[in-house]
């Protein structure tokens, strides 16, 4: 069965990443939700999607959000 690149299941996500990065002066931290959507698409479709080459399927972008609560370091014993 041949693969038709026009029907790449993660292509829309890849386009959303490019648009988000452009709108946010290429600051990846502003596009974490979009990057996570791409990662989730690639978890499901990485064997069929050419857009998923180079995507780290284990890296969760939601863990990198700046607005999530930070864990304080323990400096005193």
From TrEMBL:
Assigned GO CC terms: mitochondrial intermembrane space
Keywords attached to this entry: Disulfide bond, Mitochondrion
Localisation: Mitochondrion
InterPro entries in the record: CMC4, Cys_alpha_HP_mot_SF
Main location class: mitochondrion
SS bond list: 10-41, 20-31, 42-52
One Pfam family, short name: CMC4
Gene3D superfamilies reported for this sequence: CytochromE C oxidase copper chaperone (1.10.287.1130)
Entry's family note: Belongs to the CMC4 family.
Protein name: Cx9C motif-containing protein 4
Annotated organism of origin: Glossina fuscipes
Gene: LOC119635768
């Amino acid at each position: 069965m041949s693969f038709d690149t026009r029907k790449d299941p993660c292509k829309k996500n890849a386009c959303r990443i490019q648009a988000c990065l452009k709108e946010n002066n290429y600051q990846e931290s502003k596009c974490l939700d979009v990057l996570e959507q791409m990662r989730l698409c690639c978890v499901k479709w990485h064997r069929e999607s050419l857009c998923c080459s180079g995507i780290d399927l284990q890296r969760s972008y939601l863990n990198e959000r700046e607005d999530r609560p930070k864990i304080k370091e323990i400096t005193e014993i």
